[in-house]
Amino acid sequence: MLNIVIFGAPGSGKGTQSENLIENYKLFHISTGDVLRDHIRRGTELGKTAKEFIDQGQLIPDELMIGILAQVIDDNKELAQNGVIFDGFPRTIPQAEALETLLNERGTSVSAVVGLEVPEQELIDRLVKRGQMSGRSDDNEETIKKRLNVYHNQTSPLQEFYKEKGLYHAIKGIGTINGIFEDIKAAIDSINAF
Ligand code: AMP
Fold it and tell me: Potential cystine with 90: which of 15, 95, 100, 147 (Cβ 3.0-4.6 Å)?
């Protein structure tokens, strides 16, 4: 199995590059943001709780998020036979530890972490533009700033966490979508996980 964590700040291109990865490596895509937005659309209890955190630019509490992720993994075993692309998870050290345990218990592990690195101003410009086009409620300037702060404080320590494990591959996340994907492919193919 090829389990890829696509990592980066909001606006770094995780969703876009996930689409390329899914197609190229036939992986099952788990975007925790999409899972939560789906709950919000369906008006579930979880969706109501999630919306409060998302609209504040804050993370959903670890315990809740880890439970959701475990459920999605177990509900999609058939579709995930080649492996999974984790998009938007983990976002904290406890989530990364939980992911390791979850995968180990299922006889597998994280194969590689692809870290998309993009300068701060470019992130803000992209997110503002995305908000104008998609109408995502958390893509407004005030919430974007909060999300970037959360990223720096809670999520970016994961770079070190995964570097220490030799799993982190830094990718320059600016340029053309195809050019960036070529770099991602080179990094993944270099680990030879098949
Ligand atoms: P995303 O679509 O990945 O940018 O996620 C949108 C929002 O959903 C985030 O700003 C968080 O509020 C919430 N979220 C998504 N994934 C996670 C996660 N792994 N842990 C906590 N909150 C999350």
Answer: 95
pLDDT at position 48: 96
Token pair for 37: 């937005």
pTM: 0.95
147 classed as catalytic: yes
| 91 part of the active site | yes
In terms of Cβ atoms closer than 10 Å to its own Cβ (0-12, 13-18, 19+), residue 166 is exposed
Residues of the chain with pLDDT under 70: 192-194
Three-class HEC string of the chain: CCCEEEEECCCCCHHHHHHHHHHHHCCEEEEHHHHHHHHHHHCCHHHHHHHHHHHCCCCCCHHHHHHHHHHHHHHCCCCCCCCEEEECCCCCHHHHHHHHHHHHHCCCCCCEEEEEECCHHHHHHHHHHHHHHHCCCCCCHHHHHHHHHHHHHHHCHHHHHHHHCCCEEEEECCCCHHHHHHHHHHHHHHHCCC
In ligand 1, the atom with minimum distance to the C-alpha of 53 is 12
Q: Which of 32, 63, 95 gets mutated to test ligand 1 (max ligand atoms within 8 A of its CB)?
A: 32
